[in-house]
Amino acid sequence: AHTERAWGQNEASIDTYNLILANELSRRYSLELAEAYIGLADVYISQNNAPKALQILNIGVYELEALNYITQEMSLVRKIIQIYHDDGNLEAAKQQTQRYFDLSDQFKLDQVFELSQTLKAERAISSYEQELNQQQLALNQQENRLILVSAGLSVAWLAVVILILLVRGRTKRVKAIGQEKRDIEEVSDQRARLLMVIGNHLRASLR
């Protein structure tokens, strides 16, 4: 379209621009709409048809407003201001200038809103991460307490086992000492009986 316009092939350029606009509008997300509308308007301006150029640009403003393409809409409004100014229609140019400032303010507000939403999302993510960290910390502390309790139980169980072994060992030693004592007493009794027999035998022989 640009090449056709440069070569003065205005009708062909108009057809090409209309084809581009039809294609881009069907996609509903193109970033080339403003350029196509301005290019088409320039063709009509080159034909000294400013009203048709303004009509095309206003249609473009309507379409871009519906798509919420504020920056592209601002480009078209700037072109409209230029056309009115070149035609000496300063009142219309002034009105469109106010329109441009309104769009600029809206664009700034949208940027601020997007930034606030981004910051809000970041704060939400940060808060969620902090909550997860706190939960993880609580879980770690709980695990540490369980480990300490488990270790304490293990120590207590080991102490009980050692105590049982000590008691059993002491019981065995007491039994062993008791048995030794009984053995000694039995030997002593046998020795006393033997001495008594020997004594009786000696007294009998002396008679």
Describe the structure.
It is built from 6 helices and no strands. It is an all-alpha fold and 207 residues long. It is 91% helix and 0% strand. The radius of gyration is 54 Å and the shape is rod-shaped.
Give the secondary structure arrangement, pairings included.
Layout: H1 2-6, H2 10-27, H3 33-46, H4 50-67, H5 70-86, H6 90-206
In terms of DSSP E residues, the strand content is under 5%
**Low-confidence blocks of residues:** none
Q: Which descriptor suits the 3D outline?
A: rod-shaped
Task: Give the helix proportion (percent range).
Answer: over 70%
Tally of separate helices: 6
Structural class: mainly alpha
Biggest β-sheet description: none
Distance between the termini: 165 Å
Number of strands: 0
Mean pLDDT: 77
Order of helices and strands: HHHHHH
**How much is the radius of gyration in Å?**
54 Å
Keywords:
207 residues
Quick rundown:
The chain has helices at residues 2-6, 10-27, 33-46, 50-67, 70-86, 90-206. By secondary structure, it is mainly alpha-helical.
